[in-house]
Amino acid sequence: MATALIVLAAGQGTRMNSDLPKVLHPLGGVPLVVHAMASGSAVSPEKTVVIAGHKAELVEPAVLAYDPDATIVRQTEQLGTGHAVLQAAGALDGFDGDAIVVFGDTPFVSPETIAKMAKARTDGSDIVMLGFQAADPGRYGRMVVRDGQFERIVEAKDASPEELAITLCNGGLVAADAATLFDLLKTIGNDNASGEYYLTDIIAAGRDRGLSASVVTCDEAETLGINTRAELARAEALFQTRKRAEALENGVTLIAPDTVFFAFDTVIGRDAVIEPNVVFGPDVTVESGATIRAFSHLEGCHVSRDAIVGPYARLRPGAELAEGAKVGNFVEVKNAMIHEGAKVNHLSYIGDASIGARSNIGAGTITCNYDGFMKHHTEIGEGAFIGSNTMLVAPVTVGNEAMTATGSVINKTVPDGALALARARQETKPGMARKLFEKLKAAKAKRDKGA
Ligand code: UD1
Ligand code: MG
């Protein structure tokens, strides 16, 4: 059955106390809304509709960066979850299939749980909602099930004392035939304690029409919604715990797991070693057998087999390390290809560059890639030797098996096999240092006496 995913992301999230809309706060390096979209991808949606409202102009690019095919619909006034879902009706006009509704601020719903909801639909329930046994039901909607029949959901604000005692709570997600869902929503009013159009009212409305409803349950941890910074911090901790366990499970060595921070999409191969205090930003792949040494920071990069990074290295977007490449301490690499077995071992900046196989980049070498207006490329051939503290003024090319002398400022092509010396020649004056010391000593003594 074709499925459409509807993601609710219009709320402001007042309790975050932030200029940033709640769904854009990052968890594992990517916005909360991306987590919701990713869990929804379990049903391989044919269409994804994201309802944006508060600061929609910021939400839109974040959504499209993750899924360029997503449709964004604006809910100009946030009149409730039911009203929010109904905003998707236009975008899904004529869509023949199911709709699954997820909340943009609920990042942990597992793909398995969403698949279970889809299955309950195939098994014959007209409306499927996600529930959980709440340790502290608090503000959650209560699911009223009587004689095995799922009758309705009552929001905490509207509930009677008996209803408040119910511990089966609404996790918020819905699966139903899209056309049926919109039809039901059109019949719902806002005569309730919040004056909002409640998505949850579709259960009672559906029952009135003779439709069946059922509850799929999941662990409370999955439905954890983010409303405050404290909840966001707890969610991050939970996310990191899971990613660490997953890495260990996949055969990655983590010497001090609690000090390693992963992003949403970090991929690390078997037998890779990650030393303590390493941070992975988004979009990093580390292949089998690579070593990331302590205190390194990586984002948007790829580290091949048997490469070694750090300690204290920084790999920025576009850094690509081929097999056996080495990037050592206090080295920053950005948008640069370090080919097989090449080494950049100490205190360098390599940006917008290609370093040929087996080349050695001496300590303190800098690719001077920026002229204040534009970025320029540095090309270094294979088996080259770049002397320590070489400034490579881009655009510039150094050939295969070429050499630069230590301390050179290279701004012209160095052909294959050539040595380029670009520094002042040394002058040595015998005895001059001693004379200078005497002179300075005398000057200081004279000054101290006068004072
Ligand atoms: C909702 C449920 C409640 C459930 C709880 C689970 C309703 C009426 N209540 O309550 O039963 O236990 O989630 O967390 O559905 N949103 C919009 N537009 C709006 C209103 C909300 O896009 O007009 C979005 C929010 O950005 C958020 C999601 O919908 O991502 C949920 O809204 P929220 O206000 O948090 O609902 P709850 O009060 O938590
Ligand atoms: Mg909520």
What does this structure look like?
- Helix content is 22%, strand content 29%.
- The protein is α/β, with parallel strands linked by helices.
- The protein has two domains: 221 residues, Spore Coat Polysaccharide Biosynthesis Protein SpsA, Chain A, CATH 3.90.550.10; 192 residues, Hexapeptide repeat proteins (UDP N-Acetylglucosamine Acyltransferase, domain 1), CATH 2.160.10.10.
- Strands 13, 15, 16, 18, 19, 21, 22, 24, 26, 29 and 32 form an eleven-stranded parallel sheet that branches.
- 44% of the residues are buried.
- The protein binds uridine-diphosphate-N-acetylglucosamine (UD1) and magnesium ion.
- Magnesium ion (MG) binds next to loops.
- Coarse structural class: alpha/beta
Estimated helix fraction: 10-25%
Q: How many E-type strands?
A: 35
| Shape, principal axes of CA atoms | elongated
Number of domains: 2
Largest sheet: 11 strands, parallel
Low-confidence parts: none
As a whole number of angstroms, the C-alpha radius of gyration is: 30 Å
- Classify the fold: give the CATH topology of the largest domain: Spore Coat Polysaccharide Biosynthesis Protein SpsA, Chain A
* Second rung of CATH, namely the architecture of the largest domain: Alpha-Beta Complex
What CATH first level of the largest domain would be assigned? Alpha Beta
The CATH H-level superfamily of the largest domain is: Spore Coat Polysaccharide Biosynthesis Protein SpsA, Chain A
* Distance linking N and C termini: 94 Å
Ligands, ions, cofactors = uridine-diphosphate-N-acetylglucosamine, magnesium ion
Q: Mean pLDDT, rounded to whole units?
A: 97
Could you tell me the strand content as a percent range? 25-35%
Number of helices: 9
